[in-house]
Amino acid sequence: MRKMAVLFASSLIGMSSMTMASDTEQGKQVFTREAQPSCTVCHALADAGSSGAIGPDLDQLKPSREQVINAVTGGVGIMPAFGESLSDEQIQAVADYVVAVTRGN
């Protein structure tokens, strides 16, 4: 019985890390391809290979998940709002991606 519990817990941990990896990959796709215009046009982000200089350098800013969600959904300054062109799932994924690769708050 104890062995089954350990195996079950291990499988949950494995699934959690797989989900995180797939969420991060989905977020990278949103950042580099799915958002129109692409986030790479304006933002520098080393993991995405982007060097945009219009918006803040996300590697330096290290935004929180909430900051990314708010900015992407409603826009900030000259950044357009993507709340109507991206799904909630895409917005969540791009926020998770940016925070993961920048080690944001």
3D structure, described in words:
- The protein has a two-stranded antiparallel ribbon with strand order 1-2.
- By secondary structure, the protein is mostly helical.
- Helix 1 (2-34) packs across helix 4 and helix 3 packs across helix 4.
- It has a single domain (22-102), classed as Orthogonal Bundle (Cytochrome Bc1 Complex, Chain D, domain 2), CATH 1.10.760.
- It has 4 helices and 2 strands.
Summary?
The protein is mostly helical and 105 residues long. 59% of the residues lie in helices and 4% in strands.
Order of helices and strands: HEEHHH
Largest sheet: 2 strands, antiparallel
Q: What is the CATH topology classification name?
A: Cytochrome Bc1 Complex, Chain D, domain 2
Question: What would you call the structural class?
Answer: mainly alpha
Taken as a percent bin, the fraction of beta residues is under 5%
- Give the CATH level 1 class: Mainly Alpha
- Dominant shape: globular
* Tally of contiguous helical segments: 4
**Range of helix content:** 55-70%
Give unreliable regions as ranges. 1-19
Name the CATH superfamily assignment. Cytochrome c-like domain
The termini sit apart by: 40 Å
Query: What is the CATH-assigned architecture?
Result: Orthogonal Bundle
| Tally of distinct domains | 1
Overall radius of gyration: 16 Å
